[in-house]
């Protein structure tokens, strides 16, 4: 599939995104190998420490050099044009180990083939730069890893030197993008693992409807909830990555903000917001109102049922226990786990087959009722997470604080996974604020509508405080390309 997105140039003074970099290569204003050198230098910078578990330097350079030779020969360039893309250490890359950030898998054999998602990225011309760090087995929204070290949040460090968490579980992937070591990061989202680090680092994370992207060749956490998706620098980059990973052409629509009907659920998702998140979220809603968007507060009381549905640990506990139980039964292997991850996995041991079957029935009923309640909305708006990135040090030493903060970070984004819906997190903070994510979401199959609304909101936010891509990065820039 030939996926090309309209190549507007980046506005002066703004960090370029992947689409603008592809444009620069196509137009001969940059070479893929030069941009890869810049990505490698960023990966070597102390700000990117602990983001990567292993680097794929030789193959990435070969891809970039091949792209440059193809351009010199006048051939058509692939959609990603030899640019750096990082891979979460859950996905198989041919010739590399896949270890899920875990010590217990340190002796895993090398993969004999790329998983489908990686193969699609490679076919699209991505220079695969390495496997990135993560919460062990992707089981935390905070991003700590006791085996490989935890990458500090590089975005918050520019405003405050106190180290803050990167967000998880796709911690290293987000840091690789925030630092410039990659233009996009392949990751997974089971309860917010793409959107949480995107929100805490001022990036874009798009969780698509689960069935649209392949999950083979990926170490699972919860097959019922796991979704293959990406972290990017802009919403239009998210459109491009989704098109590649899902092997489909998104059908975007151009609608003025005044034509949009947006819902703001107040059950659960607005509880306990810190002052920075509350202010940024309300300012964004006011901007949308001023632009003519129709905003409606809705109760959506079904969200209040989530704690009861997941009281025993939910699908993640039950399904992760099924995958890990043999290793955890061996004391020599069990002691190699992150104790906090092992504790959460072991919750699944007490979930019976009847409990698990009942949970599936309850979920289907819950989805039906939520979809009925939100029918007629173009999208729903919520804060991605209720807080800015927490300071790291207290979470390293205190288990009660760790589990409390982890639950808060997962609370809002996990709604979308249980719904089997789709959601984008995009930055909505002012330049002098710690990052805040706005979550634009909808039910299963609403991916293109969510992306279209996200593009329009991103353009509005840029016009207001220049905290994102140029204002002409809206949906109309993406509609005239062939696939």
Query: What is the CATH topology assignment?
Result: Amidase signature (AS) enzymes
Strand content: 5-15%
Series of secondary-structure elements, N-terminal to C-terminal: HHEHEHEHHEHEEHEHEHHHHHEHHEEH
The number of distinct helices, counting runs of at least 4 residues, comes to: 17
Distance between the termini: 6 Å
Overall average residue pLDDT? 93
Principal-axis shape equals globular
- In the residues, how many domains can be counted? 1
Secondary-structure content class: alpha/beta
Whole-number radius of gyration? 21 Å
At the first level of CATH, the class is Alpha Beta
Keyphrases for this structure?
eleven-stranded mixed β-sheet; AS_sf; globular; 483 residues; disordered N terminus; alpha/beta; 17 helices; disordered C terminus; Amidase signature (AS) enzymes; 11 strands
Folded structure, characterized:
This protein has about 475 residues and is α/β, with parallel strands linked by helices. The chain has 17 helices and 11 strands. The protein has an 11-stranded mixed β-sheet, sandwiched between helices. Helix 8 (about 235-245) runs antiparallel to helix 17. Residues about 1-15 and about 465-483 have low confidence and may be disordered. Pfam families: Amidase (PF01425).
Topology:
Blueprint lengths: L17 H9 L5 H13 L7 E4 L1 H16 L11 E5 L27 H8 L3 E6 L21 H4 L13 H9 L4 E5 L6 H7 L2 E4 L20 E5 L2 H12 L14 E5 L9 H16 L3 E5 L7 H4 L4 H15 L2 H4 L4 H8 L6 H22 L4 E5 L9 H5 L1 H21 L2 E6 L9 E6 L4 H19 L18
Parallel strand pairs: 2-3, 2-4, 7-8, 7-9
Antiparallel strand pairs: 1-3, 4-6, 5-6, 5-10, 9-11, 10-11
Helix pairs in contact: 2-3, 4-8, 8-17, 11-13
């Amino acid at each position: 599939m030939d996926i090309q997105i309209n190549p507007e140039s980046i506005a002066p003074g703004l960090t370029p995104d992947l689409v603008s970099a592809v444009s620069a290569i196509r137009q001969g204003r940059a070479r893929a190998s030069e941009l890869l050198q810049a990505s490698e230098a960023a990966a070597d910078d102390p700000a990117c420490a602990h983001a990567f578990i292993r680097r794929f330097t030789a193959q990435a350079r070969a891809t970039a050099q091949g792209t440059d030779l193809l351009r010199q020969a006048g051939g058509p360039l692939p959609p990603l044009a030899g640019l750096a893309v990082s891979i979460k250490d859950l996905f198989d890359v041919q010739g590399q180990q896949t270890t899920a950030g875990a010590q217990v898998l340190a002796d895993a054999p090398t993969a004999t083939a790329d998983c489908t998602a990686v193969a699609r990225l490679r076919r699209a011309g991505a220079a695969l730069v390495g496997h990135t760090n993560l919460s062990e087995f992707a089981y935390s929204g905070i991003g700590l890893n006791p085996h490989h070290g935890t990458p500090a949040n590089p975005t918050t460090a520019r405003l405050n030197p106190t180290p803050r968490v990167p967000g998880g579980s796709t911690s290293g992937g987000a840091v690789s993008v925030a630092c410039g070591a990659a233009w996009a990061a392949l990751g997974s989202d089971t309860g917010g693992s793409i959107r949480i680090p995107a929100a805490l680092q001022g990036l874009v994370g798009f969780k698509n409807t689960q069935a649209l992207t392949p999950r083979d060749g990926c170490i699972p956490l919860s097959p019922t909830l796991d979704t293959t998706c990406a972290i990017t620098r802009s919403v239009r980059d998210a459109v491009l990555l989704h098109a590649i990973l899902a092997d489909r052409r998104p059908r975007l629509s151009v609608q003025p903000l005044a034509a949009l009907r947006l819902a703001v659920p107040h059950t659960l998702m607005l509880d306990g917001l810190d002052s920075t998140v509350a202010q940024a979220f309300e300012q964004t809603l006011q901007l949308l109102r001023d632009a003519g968007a129709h905003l409606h507060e809705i109760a959506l009381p079904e969200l209040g049922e989530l704690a009861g549905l997941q009281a025993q640990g939910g699908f993640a506990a039950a399904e992760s226990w099924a995958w890990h139980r043999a290793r955890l039964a061996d004391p020599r292997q069990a002691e190699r786990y992150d104790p906090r991850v092992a504790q959460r996995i072991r919750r699944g041991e007490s979930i019976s087959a009847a409990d698990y079957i009942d949970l599936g029935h309850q979920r289907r009923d819950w989805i039906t009722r939520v979809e009925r309640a939100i029918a007629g909305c173009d999208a729903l708006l919520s804060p991605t997470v209720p807080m800015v990135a927490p300071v790291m040090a207290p979470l390293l030493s205190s288990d009660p604080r760790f589990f409390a903060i982890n639950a808060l970070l997962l609370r809002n984004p996990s709604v979308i996974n249980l719904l089997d819906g789709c959601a984008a997190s995009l930055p909505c903070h002012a330049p002098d604020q710690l990052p805040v994510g706005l979550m634009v979401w909808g039910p299963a199959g609403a991916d293109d509508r969510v992306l279209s609304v996200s593009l329009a909101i991103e353009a509005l936010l840029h016009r207001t405080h220049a905290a994102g891509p140029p204002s002409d990065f809206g949906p109309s820039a993406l509609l005239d390309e062939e696939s």
